[in-house]
């Protein structure tokens, strides 16, 4: 059993090579057949579950190594967490691989087992989005979000079935070679069909006409600005200077006199913009009274005690035109879950906002704001009853360092654009900042660790996608039906053998 677990661990590590930013998709065509082979050798469902746990542990130790980065920034206080954080999280997330592995052991070898594995894997990932505050990071559907045309084609079905539906497709298609040469040929044929379907959707997408000029600002401040007031103010001045550059570019390339809206990253302002007239005046003096700035900030609630991680909409020195409060907070980073018996974070942490919303600000297209971690929650970022025209994502990926973390986070945001059929502007403090159209095409980007601005006509939105209508019900039903089909085929095979 020890050799089996070592092999499962190695297969999991190999599978991690398919994750952003490596995108080595063929690794899944090796690791998944390997996992199925090991499950087939297991003597019980318990052994199969342990094999799945070892596979998930290897996958997530490599895929989540960057978790150590924010701990090292606060090493003086949290140094003792360094040896435990990544292995502990990888083990916890690995449970969601162990369950599908255990369940598919009951299915007969062959197609029934592959279907049960793909369906239950999808349902397990869906549970991962909600259990213990949720951690929907690195779903395998994002493995196909390869930068460039290939990735843009392959992610198109997310408009119907979401990233979880793509995960189901990946698990099934990459597992087919375990059936032999016919399975390998079927896998290739399905990938070709996938690309054809994606290409057809991409060619037929007709977005609306741009209604604004968007400027994305990247200041490249280190994570220490969150606790160093002097550094924070210096970074704020840098954002003012970069904003002036963005406005100049926007005015020079705006023949139709479209409204100009600038997007700053998460917590870009060290000042409480809700109450600080001087800070709002500084922004207005820099960009002009007719330019709208959506800036990351902190704000106090009406009780004067609760504090929110927010976005504020500034136009001129007057009161904020709108605010949005982050509601999907980072556990142990922004708040401490109530179920944890020991106190790790000082104080109470941030308060939660009320959920997805659409900001209707006069003069700019209706916008769906999201902050940082919220962008990884498929189907939970848009208020569908009040559909916006675009998504504004503000984040501060400086906490992740120059690791795979910012690249994985970027891929998740790109998937949200496709799922919702909405253009997405992403402002990240240290990068990667980018603008995606409603089909997930990358219009432009600023790489990691650079200062700069992106200025472009805001891409138009598409009609509501199937996923926008159905949300997480789409991959849920698909996962359940796929698993049930595997069960039915398995029962039928056993009955046929008996007769």
Automatic annotation (TrEMBL):
What name does the UniProt record give this protein?
Apolipoprotein N-acyltransferase
Enumerate the transmembrane spans: 49-67, 79-107, 183-202, 467-491
Mind listing the GO molecular function terms for this protein? N-acyltransferase activity
List the Pfam families hit by this protein, alphabetically: CN_hydrolase, LNT_N
Signal peptide boundaries: none
Name the major location.
Answer: membrane
Q: Which gene encodes it?
A: lnt
Q: Which GO terms describe its biological process?
A: lipoprotein biosynthetic process
Reply yes or no: does the keyword Cell membrane apply.
Answer: yes
